[in-house]
Amino acid sequence: MKSNSRNLYLIPYIIWIGLFVVTPILLVLYYSFFDIEGHFTIDNYKKFFTPVYLKMIFNSFWYAFLITLFSLIIAYPTAYLLTKTKHKQLWLLLIILPSWINLLLKAYAFIGIFGTYGAANSFLEVMGIGSKQLLFTDFSFIFVSVYIFLPFMILPIFNALDELNPSLIDASNDLGASPWTTFRRVIFPLTLDGVKSGCQVVFIPALSLFMLTRLIAGNRVITLGTAIEQHFLVTQDWGMGSTIAVFLIIAMVLIMVLTGKRKRGIL
Amino acid sequence: MKKKSKLSSVYLVLVFLILYAPIFYLMFYSFNSGGTMYHFEGFTLDWYRELFEDTRLLIIVLNTVIIALLSAVISTILGVAGALAIYYARRRRVKNTLLSLNNVLIVSPDVIIGASFLILFTIIGIKLGFVSVLLAHIAFSVPIVVIMVLPKIEEMSTSMIYAALDLGASRWDVLTKVILPYITPGIFAGFFMALTYSLDDFAVTFFVTGNGFTTLSVEIYSLARRGVSLNINALSTLLFVFTMMLVVGYYFITKRNNRPNGLGVKQ
């Protein structure tokens, strides 16, 4: 194949990469060295390592960790049981379907459900616990996040379980392993890649979702995403916002390196 | 064993229930004449009527659809060019570099994409509004199209291209009569993905949209921040139905994708 034909396809694509992939990252890096008045400074980074911001980073990671953990705990058995059903592809499609519905609408539904007179409180009344303040709490934030991320966690685990060779499990059983040992020593290690990519798909967006914290947690929870949005759109301090963004990019790269290659993103 | 399978079906049903309950809760109350999301007074279609009489909202819907269609068409063209560029890249290193750059926007959190594009558009001098939103949507849809089209090109046997060249086809003929017909299912899948990504996007649009221009997601966010209003319920019911139609359409396209290779080539 002659090389001149290949260059033609490269032109628009390289322009796109240059303009929308490379330049934005460099711009964020560049802006992180300017304060709100436009002076070159490393104050943003100094400010970033003060207790206020470090606490926010810690909180953000803690929430993302909890969200990932609970999603995993619920998703793994679901994925496992799904592979045992008869029409598993159809069931999988039904599990994935809610993820196609606009995230804001799902969050909005929970504003109704967790409201003072909403379904959740009626349920608590019937159970005899009595109504509680549910909206704008840590609980509601984590619950709604897990709800939203669940399909994204189930999908890669399902795929990993589906590819698992069943004769390995038979062999393990035949050799006298208990179901728990089989799970711990055979099934889980072999589906670890699915778990890893599921965690990646959940953890990174969980660090950065600002609309959920605004709508469900009512500004009580501040994540890295909320802080970036705040700095860019409310206080107009682009320098500080960029500094947090740089940190988020570094965190993202670290997570991706730690959990191996990610095949395809969803959010 | 029987008891165990019963328990597992209960678990699966519970997960399904939790996944779908909020959506149906939302739809159910869109018919409530009471005006709240907790006490169902009587059946009414008033909220739908109000929705269709709200010209501002209809314009927003129109904007959203125009942005989605335009960005999907343009990003499909760019994405196909990109996939061909990656396919024709002969050196392994170039190929891998292009692929990793392609995936940057897929794995980046929306907040980072939004914030960096905001800086980019401000520096270039593009007024925030229709153009900036359109450019942003094109930019984040391109890598998705590439990911959908590339496997289809790679599975195509190179002997087909050589055969066409040997038989005297020009490069343009090879592209339009051999390659493009073969990868059409992949192109359609990419187009649909781009369409849904654009329709679904909130965070990026939220950053790069100015005061005068809104899309549906941004509008829902600002409405939801003000609290419950059953207009949104009616709107989400309609969106749900629309999303289902898109998913079914996408499902059939991917089904065609899985056809035996020979059938993919048109005469």
Automatic annotation (TrEMBL), chain A:
Residue spans crossing the bilayer: 7-31, 61-83, 90-119, 139-158, 201-218, 238-258
Cellular localization per UniProt: Cell membrane
Record's keyword annotation contains Membrane: yes
Domain ABC transmembrane type-1 per the UniProt entry, residue ranges: 57-259
Keywords on record: Cell membrane, Membrane, Transmembrane, Transmembrane helix, Transport
Main subcellular location of this protein, as a coarse class: membrane
Its membrane topology: Multi-pass membrane protein
PANTHER family: INNER MEMBRANE ABC TRANSPORTER PERMEASE PROTEIN YDCU-RELATED (PTHR42929:SF1), INNER MEMBRANE ABC TRANSPORTER PERMEASE PROTEIN YDCU-RELATED-RELATED (PTHR42929)
Family per similarity comment: Belongs to the binding-protein-dependent transport system permease family. CysTW subfamily.
Identification of the protein by name: ABC transporter permease
UniProtKB/TrEMBL annotation, chain B:
Domain named ABC transmembrane type-1: residues: 61-250
Membrane topology: Multi-pass membrane protein
Transmembrane segments: 12-31, 57-89, 101-124, 130-150, 179-197, 203-223, 230-253
Pfam families linked to this entry: BPD_transp_1
UniProt keyword Transmembrane, yes or no: yes
CDD domains: TM_PBP2 (cd06261)
Subcellular location per the Swiss-Prot or TrEMBL entry: Cell membrane
Alphabetical UniProt keywords: Cell membrane, Membrane, Transmembrane, Transmembrane helix, Transport
Record family assignment: Belongs to the binding-protein-dependent transport system permease family. CysTW subfamily.
Protein name: ABC transporter permease
Species in which this protein is naturally found: Cytobacillus citreus
